[in-house]
Amino acid sequence: MNPKQIIQEIVAEKEVDQVVFVGCGASKADLYPAKYFLEQEAKELRAAHFTANEFNYATPVSVDEHTVVISASLGGTTPETVAANRHAQKSGATVVSLTRSVDSPLAKTADYVIYHGFAENYAAKLEKTGYALQLAVELLHQIEGYAHYDSMQEGFEKIYELAQRSAEAAGKSAKKFAERFKDESGIYVMSSGASHEVAYSTSACLMMEMQWLHSGTFHSGEFFHGPFEIVDRDVPFILLMNDGRTRDIDARALAFLERFDAKTEVVDSLDYGLSSHIPAEVLDYFNPFVLTAVFRVYAEELASARQHPLTKRRYMWKLSY
Amino acid sequence: MNPKQIIQEIVAEKEVDQVVFVGCGASKADLYPAKYFLEQEAKELRAAHFTANEFNYATPVSVDEHTVVISASLGGTTPETVAANRHAQKSGATVVSLTRSVDSPLAKTADYVIYHGFAENYAAKLEKTGYALQLAVELLHQIEGYAHYDSMQEGFEKIYELAQRSAEAAGKSAKKFAERFKDESGIYVMSSGASHEVAYSTSACLMMEMQWLHSGTFHSGEFFHGPFEIVDRDVPFILLMNDGRTRDIDARALAFLERFDAKTEVVDSLDYGLSSHIPAEVLDYFNPFVLTAVFRVYAEELASARQHPLTKRRYMWKLSY
């Protein structure tokens, strides 16, 4: 079933008043745009977003048969997220899971499963984010009505091709970035709006996990309320710039970084033509797709320049912990 | 008026269905326990938490006359937060502000103001967090009813003295910490549960802003899903350990840090007797008080050992930006 059919079936059966997004690491971050969308656009529906064990150990009292839990795990085996599915079902919630792994533990503990791509190309890596956002849009539209539903559909029709094309066009800039940053030992990552947790997963997963580089991340609106005191000539920053309502927040951070000669790399949705393809009224929600696709190329080039493959781990997949 | 009276007056006038917490930096983080409490305990009330400019530039459509906005700014002049007050009022929301600064711009743009202490002692620095949490408890209890209301009151009666005593008892450990970490150039900070953003403000404000130290922060449940690949012998970590439901999450991260000889400093609510003073059913919500008070002493000792006063800035209060 597709997201629309799944939500139709759920709302035909029960009154939904809450959507809880649960995952770990990049799979948690990939759910953020959907949570952000509901927080922005829902008049009544509640939305929450947890790392799986926080949800497991401190489950909100509101999680009951009126809750839809949307969980994600790429390989479908993340123990905390599988436990969250079981826990959610025991609380009476309906569970929709996103994974690429057929018949995985995550798939087996969900009421509904959507299988997404990943390895095929840059666009496929965005399907998890995309399905979560589609589920959120369907929930909102079918429960409360959503004025820009058609614009969102237009966005979904166009975003994968645009993101793929953007990634393919990013090679030259990505190579330059890799050369400039390959000898750094650490790097900060910022963004805002729907892309806040693209910055988070870029920092926690691409930099720390996959490159063993030191990293920190924060909302670009928070930059001026603490983190900016670390800025000095050549301190490395990646700014993932949004096109849309929060652009001014990102631009203000950029102006400061440039003023004090921080070593700044900007990946900007505007450069990839987001607003020429996506209707203005839903523009914000599609930034994460372009930024994720383009920065993946940057990470690949960095890995290559540092001779540290993105798949290399010292603990993950190697030890029990 | 005290928090109870303020909420009585608000709910007598209007039906409240949403509470939005807005601030910047440490004042944003200080509101997190209140948001966490509502997300945990409310069956119907919605809760959200934003850095002020995210709220200003991308205001949720749900912000209307049924919304209470709770904002905070220590000095009452943070431009983004003052703008958020104006913006919230224009949307019809009722604004309750926390500040220590009488007749400040923040106070003048709020419907209700609670003035809190700060400089008097360690306990006074917790009043902002405490009033926000009291407001959240009153909102929940007066609107939906809350079974553990009396336990929370017992907690409020005891927590300030316990936190003050804890800070006063922390000197020796804090000095040892400062000696051990004074030559580090960066340090990670983790926590979970209601203390998640104590870790955030420790990282973004105490380390980056006030010590110009590199830092990153994440939920200790996220540690195993990316960040832990950075762990190696002597990589510096601060773990703010909670007593209560999410303790196992923190303890699992600690076991890993110790297994690989990371340079780990643990500040643990359990060591300061939190559970002997606070009723078990509300224990989680009082961790941030003890951890904040104790770590303040650690930060002071670190500042002293590094000869870098906590008040020293290069940009904040010095430039326009």
Number of domains of chain A: 2
Assign the CATH class of the largest domain in chain A: Alpha Beta
CATH homology-level superfamily of the largest domain in chain A: Glucose-6-phosphate isomerase like protein, domain 1
Counting DSSP H or I runs of 4 or more residues, the number of helices of chain A is: 13
Strand tally of chain A is 9
Reading the helices and strands of chain A in chain order gives HEHHEHEHEHEHHHEHEEHEHH
CATH topology of the largest domain in chain A: Rossmann fold
- What integer value in Å does the Rg of chain A equal? 19 Å
* Order of strands, widest sheet of chain A: 2-1-3-4-5
Oligomer: homodimer
Separation of termini of chain A? 36 Å
Task: Please describe the biggest sheet of chain A, giving its number of strands, its sense, and whether it closes into a barrel.
Answer: 5 strands, parallel
- As a percent range, the share of helical residues of chain A equals 40-55%
Coarse structural class of chain A: alpha/beta
> Low-confidence runs of chain A (pLDDT<50, min 5 residues)?
none
Mean pLDDT of chain A: 98
Strand content of chain A: 15-25%
Shape of chain A: globular
CATH architecture term of the largest domain in chain A:
3-Layer(aba) Sandwich
Summarize the largest interface: chains and residue counts. Answer: A-B, 68 and 68 residues
